[in-house]
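REQUEST FORM: STRUCTURE PREDICTION
Request ID: SP-0412
Submitted by: Lab K.M.
Chain count: 1
Length (residues): 242
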Amino acid sequence: MTAGGEARERAISRGQHLLSLQETDEQIAQLETEIAALEAALSGDPELERRRDAERAAEAERQGAEERCRGVERELSGVRQRARSLERRLYDGSVRNPQDLLGMQRDLGALKPRLDDLEASLLECMEASESAETVVAGTQVAVAEREAERGSQEAPRRERLAVARSELGDQRAVRAAVAAASEVGDVRIYERVAAHRRPAVVHLERDSCGGCHLPLGIREAIQARSGDGLVQCSNCDRVVVR
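STATUS: Completed
RESULT:
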C-alpha cells in the first residue's frame, strides 16, 4: 500500500472507530433500559397493586354494607319489640284507662310507618351487601389471575435479566476496546457532541450533514467523502463520516 493509501486508511479508520463507538453505546443504552425494566417488573407490579387496591376497596365497601345492615337490623328489632309490647298491653286488658289506651294506640300507629321504613332500608342494605360481595369476588379473581400471570413470567424475566446483564458486560468491554483503539482526542470530541446531540456521528448525505441536513462547506464535504481527517458539521457540531 502507498503512503497515501495508508494515510487514507488511517483517516477512514478514525471516523469508523467513532461510528463503532456510537453503535456500541446505543446497544449499551438499550440493554440498560431493558435491564431497568426487567428489574422494575421483578420488584413490583403496578397493575397487580391496582387490582389489590380495588379488592381492598371492594372489601371495605362490603364490610360497610354489612355493618349498615346490622345497624338497621338492631333498630328494626328494637322497634318491633316496642310494637309487640304496645300491642300486648293494648289487648291483654292490663290497661283500662281510656286515655292511656288512646295514647298507646297513637304510639303504635306511629311505629308502623317507622317499621315500614326500616324494613325497606334493610332490604336496600341486603341488596347493597350482595352487590358488594359480587364485586369482591370479581376483584379476587382479577388479583388471582394477575398473580398467576406474574408467576408465569417471573422465571423467563429472571433468565432474560441474567442474559442481558452478561450482554451488557460484553458490550462495555467492546466499548473499552474500541475507545482504546481510537485517538484520545477523537473520543473526547465524540463524547462532548454525544452529550448534546444524538446521534453524534452521522453519515454524509450527498454534500450535507446526515444529522441537521444542512450542506457542508465544499472543503468539509470533500474531506468527509475522502476520509481525510475527522470532519465536524459547522452547524450542529456532529462528526460526519462517509
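NOTES: The beta strands are 201-205, 208-209, 231-232, 239-241.
Reviewed by: T.R.
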